[in-house]
User: Fold this.
Amino acid sequence: MRERLPEYLKRPIIDTDTTRNVRRILKNNCLNTVCENARCPNKNECYTKNTATFLIMGNVCTRNCRYCNISCQKPEPLDPLEPQHIAKAVKDLGLKYAVITSVTRDDLPDGGAEHFAQCIYEIRKLTPDVRIEILTPDFKNDKNALDTIIKAHPDVFNHNIETVKALFKTARPQGNYENSLAVLKYIKENSDIETKSGMMIGLGETYEQIKETMEDLHSVNCDILTVGQYIQPSKDHLPVAKYYKPEEYTQLRELATSVGITRHQIGPLVRSSYNAASLA
Assistant:
């Protein structure tokens, strides 16, 4: 039996002129968002702030992570006009800080790195003062793909570790914990781009394992950390092992600071791109 979602994790439905305008701009530019596809609980709040996190390269994934609401199927070919559409939407929304993420595209030789780069270039053509954060897959730790990202030079490079090492194969059977750390390390050692990572809690990890993960991220000089509660998207996904109480997040914030990660956002409904501009 699924445990009832605690009240502090529930968010109201908000429908205003602003949220409708965000949806209209996204629809007019034929764009996906992780807000919709991953059923983010903060979607309406972000829309009221006239922002959204763009999801590029389609809305189906080549990996089947057991916590994610995005479906795993054969993906469609890339839309060569998508970078231009992203840039136009950034301008139409009046964003000062744009966040772009993607599905994982293991079917592409570079994992989609060049497509990310084109989105960055197109945004800067149209709105050169906009700061850009990208949240990427691991690109199988391919250095050529990572060099493509470095050349495009986003302001913040985010790659989520997602969970502790002991649970990685359960939650991310096609992922690799060491690869994820190596990606963050490579970006940091070969550029001046700020790095960021995020993790979910509530899958059965221990406090000590959370600490070890934070220490691992600090060891590769990760600048920014986000931590939030895992919420099961459906009965077919991994069950929630624990709902952390609000007061426990105070301990986790203190823990992150103690291991050396001083820039962090840790709370029940924190997600990778939630309030991203304020952290960066």
About this structure: The chain has eleven helices and eight strands.
